[in-house]
Design brief:
The protein is of the alpha/beta class and 959 residues long. Helix content is 43%, strand content 17%. It has 28 helices and 32 strands. α17 packs antiparallel against α18.
């Protein structure tokens, strides 16, 4: 099967449908998940190399979900694309592909049902329509269904009530903009709006609310799909999106058309098997849709489930019997009903009839119902499945008694009982999701921290069972068209993989041998720079996002392992060429190579982080404290800050990183990472943390303090292979002029000492003398980089602190890190000898030169909000032309250092040669060898307040 991710969205339901169909027929399924073909984002296009792995060597037939994969290239483009897989049998889903069988949904009739409901049930006559992307065949059919309904009811078609967002994907903000434009052009608003997709319906409701219209009281809204794009839309954080439309607790539940994705996938699997067997198949099959009535059209909700009844009169069938009502109860619960006692449904019918006639108390019925709801929940049933049959039971009994007073009172209690079941189910789902999320985060931390294939293999073997993933096969690309197996995990255990490369079209160098049919997911492993390989997951947990999370974590881990391997290879080459001056030459060249590598990583990574952190900071300033989206925005900001910390850690050992110190409560910061430390050191080591109250705060970078502790904890752990005790404590300490340590020139004053002590093997004097030197390590080859303690030394030195090491063979090791205490100025903590930054309203013209478009847009927005006039350019040559045209008006040049065509320093030199002399600030994500004269350098990722303060100071000095 070919589909496009992310699996948290529609592709997850589609995948499950094909998987269930394949397993029902005794077949294996391999699902290849990439991205849309010809996607404008180069990073997303990299994911599509996974489609190149499909070959008749391992695949007998192919199911292509065309609207997922080919939305951007259309039907003709997809027909041309799938020719590469000939003569493999193909089943197309949602769009026809040449001679191959096709599974469609009845888009036209589905939308017609929704519009019919608005007209016939609610009396709506002036109905607008929001069309979908033109390249989406189903969207065109839905528009025709809208037109059919109007025509059948004698309502004239009004082109002014039809709008098209003009986007190639389903984006709520585009729909909102289109509806806003439509409403501005017409004199009278419509009394209902039908959207071609539920995501568009979100945008419609949002813009109606913004314009003062209530849904459904003023304008009814219906959607299509019964599925909203949770990852990219509901929270308002799509990649590259500044969307403000979202859903919240006040948004009415959408009346919509359920798209039969699962049924379509199941049927596609059946057709694929028929093609392989040479059996005749129908060329085109259409699956029916289902109208789901909820609140947004104006129907009264039950408050208890998806299939709420409409407000019009509902009549029980005259032929209904106690037996048919009992059958409805069993059928609605499905498989879980088999776990209930024999005759349970009939007993509920009898008890409610007896209670309605006054023959018995209703308490017995409620007791039985509560017990059956509890048993069905344990068997996997959801409370929503009880609502429709209970509603029918209530109507059945009401029609057969003379006085409905008793039954109505009892019915209220039934609703309260079900409401409690819904609340319990919601709490369980929330806690289950949180547990899953925490487990994935913890697993990701281990995977990303892997320094070699062995560590990665061990981490996967220990974490995959926690994620309920039964099998995982990691392949790394070797030469073009070949790969090597790095990890083979199946049947709950690791298996030694073959060492020789194999053709990637074989997927694996070995066969999958299972007693029952299995379903697997193939996902690419890649970064924005390179294709790394691919991973095959055997189907386990239901939520598709778990596989995506592990896929991304494996990509990061493989990239780190590759970088580490490149460093090791470079070191080996250096050692071969080194003669008598081996130690000095190796040290110098390693530092140079690492510096270049670190600089390259920092430049690209910091551009990305500048956009993420800048936009999240801006969003937080504009978001109220009780806004439900604020937590998600804070999570984004926290993740961005952690990523920025990682970049600074790469620079730490060369002492080139830019620290972002603040006043820290060490007890609070160390308590937050206690669980991570516990996992890091292992269960064989006792972790003792003594963090008393009342210890002074320190002036340091929070991320760098964590890095210090992690590095020291790893060293202590490795020194105690057979177990021991790791003690961590903090205390106030005053350093005088006579106190010494490993760092020369430390300022006397108040400090907080962070003491890390282990009961390991200890160190000899000659080892202690070299322990803080880069690349010095006593560990076996492949077990350590020698950068841990040198990184700690660099961080402490840049933080204005002191470090001391005390050790002896057989007596363990103690490392004492002294961090300075901030001074108080006007009640605000500050670093000694530093000045406070102030907010500023700017004035002047800034020439902004940045080759990264996202960084440029974010920086321009910050400058314009602060009051500056901005002239922007994408490289030095364009900036030079603009500067010539605006020569007399430019007050400051804010430019990146390294850019294509012409860098920042060359641009400034040419400007100076023409007689122009504006102030200059350079931006860079890493230390550069460029000569920057006396100009100011600000490092990425920067925050808005720091940038604006730096500009204010430079312009003030220039004036």
């Amino acid at each position: 099967m070919i589909t496009a991710g992310p699996l948290i969205e529609l592709a997850g339901e589609q995948w499950r449908g094909v998987s269930d169909g394949a397993q029902h027929l005794g077949c294996d399924l391999v699902c290849f998940v990439g991205s849309e073909l010809d996607h404008p984002d180069p990073l997303k296009r990299r994911a599509n190399t996974v489609y190149d792995l499909i070959s008749a060597n391992r695949i007998d037939a192919l199911v292509v979900w065309t609207t997922r994969v080919g939305q951007l290239i259309g039907s003709e483009g997809m027909q041309e694309y799938v020719k590469r897989y000939a003569p493999m049998p193909i089943v197309s889903v949602e769009t026809g592909l040449a001679q191959w069988p096709t599974i469609l949904m009845d888009n036209r009739d589905g939308m017609k049902q929704a519009v019919d409901h608005l007209i016939e049930v609610h009396g709506k006559r002036r109905i607008a329509f929001v069309r979908g992307p033109q390249t989406h065949a189903g969207a065109r059919e839905r528009f025709l269904g809208y037109a059919d309904s109007l025509r059948n009811h004698g309502i004239p078609f009004d082109p002014s009530l039809v709008t098209m967002p003009g986007s190639f994907i389903w984006e709520p903000n585009r729909a909102a903009d289109a509806v806003r434009r439509m409403l501005a052009k017409i004199e009278e608003p419509p009394d209902a709006i039908a959207a071609a997709n539920d995501d568009y319906a979100i945008g419609v409701v949002s813009v109606l609310e913004a314009l003062g219209f209530r849904t459904p009281e003023d304008v009814a809204v219906v959607g299509y799909g019964n599925h909203t794009n949770v990852r990219t839309h509901d929270l308002g954080h799509g990649t590259g999106s500044t969307r403000s439309q979202t859903v919240d607790a006040a948004t009415p539940a959408f009346t919509t058309v359920r798209a039969p994705y699962h049924e379509m996938g199941f049927r596609a699997a059946e057709l694929a098997v028929a093609l392989v067997k040479g059996e005749p198949t129908r060329q085109r099959q259409t699956m029916p849709t289902e109208l789901i009535v909820r609140r947004s059209c104006g129907c009264l909700p039950s408050g208890l489930g998806d299939h709420a009844p409409a407000h019009d009169r509902l009549n029980i069938s005259e032929s209904a019997t106690a037996s048919t009502v009992a059958d409805h109860l069993r059928d609605s619960l499905g498989q879980p009903s088999a776990k209930l006692p024999d005759g349970w449904a009939e007993q509920l019918v009898v008890e409610l009839l007896a209670a309605g006639r006054g023959e018995v108390e209703g308490a017995e019925f409620l007791k039985l119902l509560a017990e059956y709801i509890r048993l069905s929940a344990r068997a996997g049933s959801e409370p929503a499945q009880w609502w429709p049959p209970l509603f029918d039971l209530h109507r059945f009994v009401t029609a057969r008694i003379s006085d409905a007073t008793i039954i109505n009172d009892l019915w209220l209690r039934v609703q309260l009982l079900l409401g409690d079941a819904f609340a319990t189910d919601a709490r369980f789902k929330y806690l289950s999701h949180e547990r899953h999320d925490q487990t994935v985060r913890e697993a990701g931390q281990r995977l990303i921290a892997s320094r070699g294939v062995d560590e990665l293999t061990t981490a996967l073997a220990e974490e995959l069972p926690r994620l309920a993933i039964p099998g995982c096969h990691v392949m790394a690309y070797d030469t073009p068209g070949t790969a090597r197996t790095l990890v083979r995990y199946e049947h709950g255990a690791l298996t030694t993989p073959p060492e020789t490369p194999f053709p990637t079209i074989n997927l694996t160098p070995y066969q999958f041998r299972r007693d029952v049919p299995f379903s697997a997911l193939v996902a690419p492993l890649y970064t924005d720079e390179d294709h790394l390989g691919y991973v095959i997951f055997e189907e386990g947990p239901e939520p598709g996002w778990i596989y995506e999370a592990v896929q991304q974590q494996l990509s990061s881990a493989l990239r780190s392992i590759r970088l580490m391997q490149e460093l090791k290879d470079a070191r080996a080459r250096l050692e071969e060429r080194v003669g008598e001056t081996e130690a000095q030459l190796r040290h110098a060249q390693k530092m140079e190579a690492i510096g270049r590598l670190t600089g390259g990583i920092a430049h690209d990574f910091n551009n990305i982080l500048t956009v993420v952190n800048g936009n999240s900071e801006m969003l937080l300033r504009r978001t109220l404290q009780d806004d439900p989206r604020r937590t998600a925005i804070e999570d984004i900001r926290h993740a961005g800050e952690r990523a920025a910390n990682l970049t600074r850690q790469l620079l730490a050992f060369t002492r080139q990183q830019v620290l972002h110190p603040e006043s820290l409560d060490l007890k609070h910061n160390l308590t937050k990472i206690h669980s991570m430390l516990r996992t890091l050191v292992g269960d064989h080591i006792e972790l003792d943390m003594q963090l008393p109250d009342g210890v002074s705060q320190v002036w340091a970078d929070a991320g760098q303090v964590e890095q210090i502790l992690f590095n020291l904890a790893v060293n202590s752990r490795d020194a105690m292979p057979d177990g021991g005790t790791l003690s961590i404590s903090i205390a106030d300490r005053k350093l005088g002029s006579g106190d010494t340590g490993r760092i020369v020139g430390v300022r006397p004053g108040e400090y907080v000492v962070l003491r890390v002590q282990d009961t390991g093997a200890g160190m000899a004097p000659d080892v202690q003398a070299q322990v803080f030197e880069p690349y010095f390590t006593t560990k076996p080859v492949g077990k350590g980089t020698g950068l841990g303690l040198s990184t700690v030394f660099g961080i402490v030195q840049q933080s204005g602190g002191q470090i001391e090491l005390i050790s002896a063979l057989g007596e363990g090791t103690t490392v004492e890190v002294y961090l300075p205490v901030p001074i108080e100025r006007d009640g605000t903590p500050e670093a000694p000898c530093t000045r406070r930054t102030t907010t500023h309203r700017g004035a002047g013209t800034v020439l902004l030169v940045e080759d990264d478009a996202q960084v440029r847009v974010m920086t321009r927005r910050s400058l314009e909000i602060a009051g500056y006039v901005v002239i922007e350019a994408g490289d030095g040559q364009q900036a030079l032309q603009l500067a010539t045209a605006h020569r007399s008006t430019i007050d400051l040049v804010l430019t990146d250092v390294v850019m294509p065509k012409m860098g920042g320093p060359e641009l400034v030199r040419l400007l100076r040669s023409t007689g122009a002399a504006p102030a200059v600030i350079y931006m860079s994500g890493y230390t550069t060898d460029e000569v920057l004269d006396d100009e100011v350098l600000i490092t990425k990722p920067y925050v808005e307040s720091v940038l604006l303060e730096r500009i204010r100071r430079v312009l003030a000095q220039d004036a």
